[in-house]
Specification:
alpha/beta; Purple Acid Phosphatase, chain A, domain 2; seven-stranded mixed beta sheet; 9 helices; globular; STPP_CPPED1; signal; Metallo-depent_PP-like
Length: about 350
């Protein structure tokens, strides 16, 4: 009987090995006590064309498959979930999908993370108005209600109001408790936030219960590839605050906002022109890290494949102050013929951040 049990166990192990997908490259943490967060840049070009939509699902499926190996605590997305929020006749250039089809595709991609890990999404200019931010009409609350992801029941701690005075996840805060970094608070702000949204975030982060939290602010539009904070952008939505105003009104006066993450800016240029990073001291003399990351034209086209599936892996090292940033594509990592292209290793794509 003992021999049969051993044989059965061996066969089960072999069957699992045989059925397991073979990845030529699997990212690993540099330290066994680290945890990570994954940053998804603007996904709009994945969902505007039907042929690109599986690439967005590849990203979220890869994240779901890597939760344990990378000890992923949360997933952040820089917004612009769709190319156009309220379009009924696609023009073939800005996509061949209606807005409803685009929202459904974005929703379907995040379904792979529901019930598995908290994710935080900020809204982008393309998520508002008819085409892009003519007003604050937005279908984000229809597809991402607070009840959607079971993981939010433990992490979602505050919800702000949208332009109609309705509490939605367009402005929301999520708490993450860790062994090595203490408590983190990720606050997402709507595109070009109204004064009311900024005031909600200011009051929230200033509460005594969050005094010792390390706060990460996630908002769509904040700074350019030249690391210059936006003063004004050419959108009709009003009232609105852009990067410099967000810094002046919210980040600079804050004791605990230690990092700002955004997307939005993108041109058909090399990788260096699609990312940026800067640090500035806040009112209390602490350095605040500010990072912009987008990839929607990473393949060199406005209407290409959507961004070559580039992600940023943010490893929070166990020293409680260092974040190791790496830029990785699960699309390239899937094949033995392309896995050598799965990492972007230039200094602007692979670096460390020190949080004070």
């Amino acid at each position: 009987m003992k021999k049969h049990s051993i044989l059965l166990g061996t066969l089960l192990c072999l069957s699992q090995l045989i059925s397991a997908q073979v990845y030529p490259l699997r990212p690993k943490l540099s330290h066994e006590r680290s945890f990570s967060m994954v940053l998804i840049p603007d996904p709009q070009s994945y969902v505007k064309f039907d042929a690109n939509q599986p690439l967005f699902e590849l990203q979220t499926a890869w994240i779901a498959n890597s939760l344990k190996s990378l000890n992923i605590k949360g997933v952040l997305c820089t917004g612009d979930l769709v190319e156009q929020n309220e379009i009924r006749i696609p023009d073939g250039v800005n996509g061949n999908q209606t807005s409803e089809e685009q929202w459904k595709a974005a929703s379907r991609a995040f379904e792979r993370l529901d019930g598995k890990v908290p994710y935080v999404i900020c809204t982008g200019n393309h998520d508002y108005g008819y085409e892009k931010a003519e007003n604050r009409l937005c279908h984000f609350p229809d597809y991402f209600p607070a009840e959607r992801n079971a993981c939010w029941r433990e992490s979602l701690v505050s919800v702000g109001c949208n332009y109609q005075g309705i509490p939605t996840l367009e402005n929301a805060a999520y708490e993450f408790e860790t062994d090595t970094w203490g408590k983190l608070l990720v606050v997402s702000l709507e595109f070009a936030p109204r004064d009311e949204a900024i005031e909600w975030a200011r009051q929230l982060t200033g509460k005594p219960k969050y005094k010792n939290h390390k706060v990460i602010l996630l908002t769509h539009s904040y700074m350019s590839p030249e690391a210059v904070r936006h003063v004004k952008e050419d959108y009709k939505v009003s009232p609105a605050n852009y990067g410099q105003a967000i810094w002046d009104k919210l980040v600079y006066p804050s004791q605990n906002i230690c990092m700002v993450i955004c997307g939005h800016e993108c041109e058909i240029v090399d990788y260096e022109g699609q990312v940026s990073f800067r640090t500035d001291k806040n009112k209390f003399g602490k350095q605040v890290s500010q990072m912009m990351f987008n990839a929607q034209t990473a393949d060199g086209q406005w209407h290409g494949n959507g961004g070559d599936c580039w992600l940023r892996l943010m490893e929070f090292l166990p020293d409680g102050k260092t974040i190791s940033v790496r830029t990785f594509s699960p699309l390239f990592a899937l094949s033995p013929t392309t896995f050598d292209k799965a990492w972007r290793t230039a200094p602007y794509d692979q670096f460390k951040i020190t949080i004070e």
